[in-house]
From TrEMBL:
Gene name of the record: hpt
Origin: domain of life: Bacteria
This protein's UniProt keywords: Cytoplasm, Glycosyltransferase, Magnesium, Metal-binding, Nucleotide-binding, Purine salvage, Transferase
UniProt pathway annotation: Purine metabolism; GMP biosynthesis via salvage pathway; GMP from guanine: step 1/1; Purine metabolism; IMP biosynthesis via salvage pathway; IMP from hypoxanthine: step 1/1
Cofactor: Mg(2+)
SUPFAM superfamilies documented for this protein: PRTase-like
An example molecular function term from Gene Ontology annotations: guanine phosphoribosyltransferase activity
NCBIfam families linked to this entry: HGPRTase
Biological-process GO terms, alphabetical: GMP salvage; guanine salvage; hypoxanthine metabolic process; IMP salvage; purine ribonucleoside salvage
Protein name in UniProt: Hypoxanthine phosphoribosyltransferase
Length: 185
């Protein structure tokens, strides 16, 4: 890792700026307002990465909604999914007969999203959909597509706006590509 305290020093290039992300949250918020009109969904934030996106997106939704969180992990600090998914923190609300919207920062292999959707449907959710900031289709290993997408993401390791490398860089206000020299050791 770089010895610099400057978070920007590990960014190879910026992919999506603060302003672009704000515009995308407004667009998706309008889509979700229309999709959930007359309903009272449970909006489920996938911890920890989706917190920034969830907060900005949720404020753009003009819908009565409950909020809950789930923390599932398949990375364990690396750059590649282990394929083994563990529930670190479970929901506090009952999803039976409820419309559920999962909010994710990024979908790549799709394994975690598939796991969460299956889990919530098994628990009796009426419907389960996903809003995601970044869709990294090039890495998909299961047949799943998020219903609400901010951006298609190139097949590069991204950080910022909630996304991390080994727990770091979530607090960058934009999405950037991590310099390969930071993780190729």
């Amino acid at each position: 890792m770089a010895n610099s305290d400057n978070l920007n020093s590990v960014v190879e290039r910026k992919l999506f700026s603060e302003a672009e992300i704000a515009d995308t949250c407004k667009r998706l918020g309008s889509e979700l307002t229309a999709a959930y009109a007359g309903k009272r969904p449970i909006v489920v934030g996938a911890l920890k990465g989706a917190v920034f996106f969830l907060t900005d997106l949720f404020r753009e939704m003009d819908v009565k909604a409950d909020l809950d969180f789930i923390d599932v992990s398949s990375y364990n600090g690396g750059t590649e999914s282990t394929g083994k998914i563990v529930v670190e923190h479970d929901l506090s609300k009952d999803v039976k007969d409820r419309d559920v919207l999962i909010v994710e920062d990024i979908v790549d292999t799709g394994l975690t999203l598939q796991f969460m959707k299956d889990l919530l449907l098994k628990r009796g959710a009426k419907s389960v959909k996903c809003a995601v900031l970044l869709d990294k289709k090039a890495r998909r290993t299961v047949d799943i597509e998020p219903e609400f997408v901010g951006y298609e993401c190139p097949n590069e390791f991204v950080i910022g706006y909630g996304m991390d490398f080994d727990g770091l860089y979530r607090n960058l206000p934009y999405v950037g590509v991590l310099k390969p020299s930071e993780y190729q050791n």
